[in-house]
Design a protein that fits this description.
Order of helices and strands: HEEEHHEEHHHEHHEEHHEH
Oligomer: single chain
Radius of gyration: 26 Å
Largest sheet: 4 strands, mixed
Distance between the termini: 19 Å
Strand content: 5-15%
Helix content: 40-55%
Strand order of the largest sheet: 3-5-4-9
Structural class: alpha+beta
Shape: globular
Length: 379
């Protein structure tokens, strides 16, 4: 009996050790992923300017707008703040609400982008138009200019993309729009075309071939599209791993990278927000619920906090300029408030294993007693 009890205990201990080890590894992996999300969120929050009520494009000293305003004082209604307002909701609802209120008033004046809002369940036109950088607002704070812009793609803002299927991002936008229109076959068609441009480091589409660099917001956009369409992707894990490899020390995702997979320049709001949206199950669920509903003219905005509303608005349009990034080293990290969901996994697993061990020991003891009873009867 002692020998059988020893075997039972040994088996239980081995089982307990292995299960705790696997639980611990799983917990570490989950917490590591949560930490990456937290760091990405902190990067976005660090770009928030309460005087403007928006997050600035990036930390760069260089400029991507016609008036020469540096990136750290440039604020894009969309895609940057439109996406950031939704990406921040699970982490900091107050600032997310502030951003939503600010962009709602600007969108009322200049309209939707007719592109980026499709991720939030708002239909766009099937015809894809090139864009114009629309100057929306101008502020002077402590003697420095701060400008607000909109990357708008409405009819008349630019020419028609007759070669839309040569751009990975346009394929993903069109796939999302087809899904909203209940055109599943077309949605899958566009997603597969965009997916086919993946080369292991980024989406090598017409834009990447022209510049020699990947635009990494397309990675998060792809991950979101796959989840939103519930598409069985064979490259999802590879794209996800590559995207996180572009996360910089300040938590943001590098806006661009070279064909060999090395980072070019700094992180920006657009790229980081696109990735966070791919992990926002509420946004994805809301997107799916909008399928086959009537077209929406404005983005739904929900918020509970108040902001100071800018009072001056200028509506002047200029030719589109491609947003790129130069190297910068400054960063601000703001603490977020999300609670880690894996906090008690290890403790719970240990309790479960202990209960299992007790049942195993009881089973062996009962088996031993039955054997002894049988032996006595046989005699």
């Amino acid at each position: 009996m002692v020998e059988e009890l020893g075997k039972a205990l040994s088996t239980s201990i081995i089982f307990l050790t292995l299960l705790i080890l696997f639980t611990y590894v799983g917990k570490v992996g989950a917490e590591a992923n949560d930490q990456k999300l937290q760091n990405a969120t902190s990067f976005i929050l660090g770009r928030y300017n309460p005087s403007i009520g928006l997050v600035s494009e990036a930390e760069d000293q260089g400029s991507n707008v016609p008036d020469g305003t540096p990136c750290y004082r440039t604020f894009w209604i969309y895609s940057d703040n439109l996406w950031a307002s939704q990406a921040l909701k699970p982490f900091n609802s107050t600032i997310a609400g502030n951003i939503s209120r600010t962009i709602a008033q600007y969108i009322e004046k200049v309209g939707n982008a007719n592109l980026f809002e499709v991720m939030l369940g708002n239909k766009i036109t099937s015809t894809r138009y090139d864009g114009s950088d629309v100057s929306v607002d101008y502020h002077i704070i402590d003697g420095e200019n701060y400008t607000v812009w909109a990357d708008r793609h409405q009819k008349g803002d630019g020419g028609i993309f007759y070669d839309a299927e040569e751009y990975a991002d346009l394929c993903f936008y069109l796939a999302l729009n087809c899904y909203l229109n209940d055109e599943q076959e077309n949605a899958t068609h566009f997603l597969k075309i965009g997916e086919g441009m993946w080369d292991g480091h980024g989406f090598l589409d017409k834009a990447a071939n022209a510049t020699g660099r990947y635009q990494n917001y397309k990675l998060g956009l792809y991950l979101f599209t796959v989840k939103a369409l519930d598409y069985d992707s064979s490259i999802y894990d590879s794209v996800e791993k590559t995207t996180w490899s572009y996360q910089k020390g300040n938590g943001g995702i590098a806006a661009q990278s070279y064909p060999n997979g090395t980072i070019y320049g700094t992180a920006n709001i657009e790229t980081t927000s696109a990735l966070l949206l791919a992990y926002n199950e509420e946004i994805i669920s809301n997107f799916r619920s909008m399928r086959n509903q009537s077209a929406t003219s404005t983005t739904t905005i929900t918020a509970t906090s108040t902001i100071t509303v800018p009072t001056t608005t200028t509506l002047t349009e200029t030719v589109t300029s491609t947003k790129t990034d130069t190297i910068s080293t400054s960063t601000t990290i703001t603490e977020t408030t999300r609670v880690m969901p894996t906090e008690y996994l290890l403790e719970g697993a240990a309790l479960v294993v202990a209960i299992v061990a007790i049942f195993m020991i009881a089973f062996y003891l009962r088996r031993r007693k039955a054997a002894e009873l049988k032996s006595t009867i046989d005699k």
